[in-house]
Structures are given as structure tokens and as C-alpha cells.
Design goal:
The chain has 13 helices and 23 strands. Strand 16 and strand 17 form a beta hairpin. Bound molecules: zinc ion (ZN) (2 copies). One zinc ion binds next to loops.
Length: about 450
């Protein structure tokens, strides 16, 4: 799917700008006190940054030890796959190393020119494991081999073909598919960055007008220079409807929740002086690639042009380098080793959790079941038998708001770095960890469920 910070043509925008009710607050999602536009103020961004540092410097406890590796994976990633993608695989690899990401599961927009399996990267490159795949027919599809010549237009056949011999498949862009069945899938995207951006109507209008408003443009340039990660985090929300579907569907079958970065490195905007009277706005993610605006169309153009010669770059705003997207949200995969087979197996088994790493490093998070009839420790994704003495335990590396859910209902909440619960009923149990940042509650970690049968 194509991230659309810019979908409304600029000329349409010029007509509606004066009527846009910026004064009216859009409805605020769970945990929020501020709108995204408010979060973009430099004081807000600074406060968020301060709280990130506070969490970073907290002493870290390890309360539950899992004897598996905790690998950061980027699922749903685009490079060199479509006209609206700005980044390359080489750039992605370099940025993965900077962001501490060990796994990249590519999701090409398939094209007739290149096979998304045989024509892509597969295996370890410079310490980063690549698994090729596609964003196709509403899914993240990671088949074991090329689908060329074996693709059926029928949905169930497609799912079977992708899963053949150990392939993985996840429902993608769930906001468009809330009624799709998930019983035959490995899982679904419980967070998708593009989904989160889509509904930011107020912010998107605010951003578009910035290209013709010198004051707002300077505000954004400064924000990106001083607090780039906080700018990306400004849109972060809790996707209530999608989580509700996950909670519903997981009651009848195991369903692994994963994160979708949907990174393309394409939220890059340039403003160039065209002549004495007009500017040109350039973008990657929408067509046409440029829009020309003259001083008669917008009052800010004259001020933007002052001091610039024709052809000169006035501003360049780069919102989404891969490194920043990768820091923003990942799927942590708990596996014995960094191999394609182990990663595929962990995803199928739900041995994974979703985290907004940018808020605080979650590595070391655990959610396990202990006691009861089995002497073994079982972990998120596993099925356990309801029995006397069974305990569910969760632990984070710093104190936060820990919420335990049973079949989607919040049954216990603590302010702590650990939570314990004795289940009395069968069902699906999972944990969310939230952090307090600039006075707001932000979702930080989503565990996969433990299924008590
Ligand atoms: Zn995508
Ligand atoms: Zn795309």
C-alpha cells in the first residue's frame, strides 16, 4: 500500500485552506492528550525526547529469562519495488545495521518485470537476514518458492499456495479487511504505520499547507533537525478496531500479531524556487511528482522566494529514512538462532511481540506460563492447559503500565515492571505495556497471547 501523506492535489488544497477548521480538535485516541499537530510543537517534541532519555537511563531489571534470542524484525518493507518507493535494498541494509535490526522480511508490490522471490535478496547479508515476500491480494505473503505459474485468483487457493512447504502468510492493512476470515493464516498486522497515518486528516492538511507557509516550514525543518524520531512518533496511535479483531479471532484459532513498518523511504518533499514568481513542490509518493504554485495562488510564496535564485532548493523535508522507520516499530522474534527456518517457525508459533522500540528498548520483555500440570515454562504463542497452580507472568525491563487482557477484556492493570495472574478461566491472555511520555500514555509493547485451553 502506498503511504499517502499527500493525496489531495495542492490546488484543491489552496481552495479549502481558508475553510479548514484547524481550531476544532479531532477525536483523540486511547492514551492521547494532544492531537498530532499539537505533538509537532517543539516544546512537545522536546518533552517526549526528555522522557525517552529518562526511560533509557532507568536501571534495568531482568525478572524472567527466556533462553532464546530476541531478534528485531522488520516485516512489511519496500525497496526498489514500485514507482512510489524511494529507497533501495542497499540503503535498507545499511540502515538496519544502524537500527540494530537483524531480520528484514521484504514485501514487494509485485510486478511482471521481477519475481519477488527469485529476483530479490534471500539469506544473510552482512549479518542481516533477508526473507523475500510480497504485499499481495491483501496479505503479507512469504512463500518458500516463486509463485509464478502457481497463483490462483481464488483467495483460499492463494493462501494454501503461499503456505505450501512452510511459507508464511499474514493479513495486511486490516483496517480494510475487518471482516476477512483469519483461520487459515499465521497472523495479522496488529499495527501498521501506514494505517496509523491514513486517518491523520488534520495533520496531513497542516503539513501540505506548510509547503507554502514560511513560518510553518521553518517549524517542521527545526523539528526534523532536532527531534527526527519524535516527529515520526507524533502520529502514533493505538489501532482499537484492529486489536479488537485480533482479540475476537484469536479466541477460535492461534493468530500471531505482527507489526508492519510499511517503510518505503518516500516521505521526502522538496521546495524549489522555479522563477521569480513561483515555487515547485516535489514528492515521491504521489503523481504528478511536482506541483507548481505561484505568488497569486498562495500568499506565502513571495516570502519563500525572497533571497532565492531560480533553481535553488528552498527546503528539503525527509520524514522517513529507513533507520527512523526501523526504530519506530518492529516485531521481536524469539528464536534459537538467526535462520530463515527458525524465524518462520517462531512467527507461526506466536513466539514474537510487537514493540515501539523508539520509546524505549523492550529487549528482555517476557510473557510466560508457569506451574500447573506441566513442569515446563511456556511462552507467548503457546497453548497451555488450565489447571491448579497455573500462573501467567509478564516482565518488562523498566516500570510501565502493564495491562493483562482475557479475551479482549482488561482484567488486571499494574504500574510495575512485572505482572502476575492466576487464570481461572480458559481463553486468550495477552499483555500490553504502556509508557507515560509527555503526560500521555503511549502503547509500547504488545505481547502475543498465551492460549489457555
Ligand atoms: Zn506496503
Ligand atoms: Zn507501497
Amino acid at each position: 500500500m502506498k503511504p499517502l501523506l499527500l493525496t489531495i492535489p495542492i490546488l484543491f488544497l489552496l481552495l479549502v485552506t481558508s475553510a479548514t477548521p484547524f481550531g476544532q480538535k479531532p477525536p483523540l485516541g486511547p492514551g492521547r492528550k494532544y492531537t498530532t499537530v499539537e505533538r509537532m510543537h517543539i516544546e512537545r517534541l522536546r518533552a517526549v525526547h526528555k522522557d525517552r532519555l529518562r526511560y533509557k537511563n532507568m536501571p534495568r531489571g531482568v525478572h524472567l529469562r527466556i533462553v532464546l534470542g530476541d531478534y528485531r524484525a522488520i516485516m512489511h518493507a519496500h525497496a526498489e519495488d514500485s514507482p512510489h518507493t524511494g529507497g533501495t535494498r542497499a540503503e535498507m541494509l545499511a540502515d538496519a545495521k544502524r537500527a540494530g535490526v537483524q531480520i528484514i522480511m521484504l514485501t514487494d508490490h509485485p510486478s511482471p518485470e521481477r519475481d519477488f522471490i527469485t529476483g530479490s535478496w534471500r539469506g544473510l547479508r552482512d549479518g542481516v537476514l533477508f526473507i523475500p515476500g510480497a504485499e499481495h491480494k491483501g496479505f503479507l505473503a512469504y512463500p518458500m518458492a516463486s509463485l509464478r505459474g502457481r497463483e490462483s485468483p481464488e483467495r483460499d487457493d492463494f493462501i494454501r499456495t503461499v503456505k505450501a512447504d512452510g511459507g508464511n502468510i499474514f493479513l495486511s492493512h486490516v483496517e480494510e479487511r475487518l471482516d476477512w476470515p483469519t483461520a487459515d493464516l499465521d497472523g495479522l498486522e496488529i499495527y501498521n504505520h501506514h494505517t496509523d497515518v491514513k486517518d491523520e486528516t488534520e495533520f496531513n492538511l497542516w503539513l501540505r499547507t506548510a509547503f507554502m507557509d514560511p513560518e510553518r516550514l521553518r517549524q517542521i525543518e527545526r523539528a526534523l533537525a532536532e527531534y527526527p524520531q519524535e516527529v515520526m512518533g507524533a502520529q502514533q496511535d493505538y489501532l482499537t478496531e484492529i486489536i479488537a479483531k485480533w482479540d475476537r479471532d484469536a479466541q477460535s484459532h492461534r493468530l500471531t500479531g505482527v507489526a508492519a513498518n510499511d517503510c518505503h523511504h518516500n516521505q521526502v518533499f522538496t521546495i524549489t524556487a522555479k522563477d521569480e514568481n513561483s515555487i515547485e513542490i516535489g514528492y515521491i509518493s504521489s503523481r504528478p511528482r511536482t506541483t507548481r504554485v505561484n505568488a497569486n495562488q498562495s500568499a506565502g510564496v513571495a516570502a519563500l522566494l525572497s533571497g532565492s535564485k531560480p533553481g535553488e532548493l528552498i527546503a528539503r523535508l525527509d520524514f522517513d529514512p529507513y533507520e527512523r522507520s526501523m526504530n519506530y516499530v518492529t516485531t521481536h522474534i524469539l528464536a534459537e538462532r538467526l535462520t530463515e527456518a527458525a524465524v518462520r517457525d517462531a512467527l507461526r508459533s506466536g513466539h514474537a511481540y510487537v514493540a515501539h522500540d523508539w520509546l524505549c528498548d523492550p529487549t528482555g520483555f517476557a510473557f510466560v506460563a508457569q506451574g500447573g500440570v506441566s513442569k515446563l515454562v511456556r511462552m507467548m504463542g503457546d497453548e497451555v492447559t488450565l489447571s491448579q497452580g497455573l500462573r501467567l507472568r509478564g516482565a518488562t525491563t523498566v516500570a510501565c503500565t502493564l495491562k493483562l487482557f482475557h479475551n479482549g477484556a482488561e482484567v488486571k492493570t499494574v504500574e510495575s515492571d512485572r505482572i502476575e495472574f492466576e487464570p481461572r478461566a480458559k481463553g486468550v491472555y495477552r499483555i500490553e505495556a504502556w509508557l507515560t511520555v509527555d503526560g500521555e500514555q503511549r502503547p509500547w509493547i504488545y505481547s502475543n497471547p498465551i492460549y489457555v485451553r
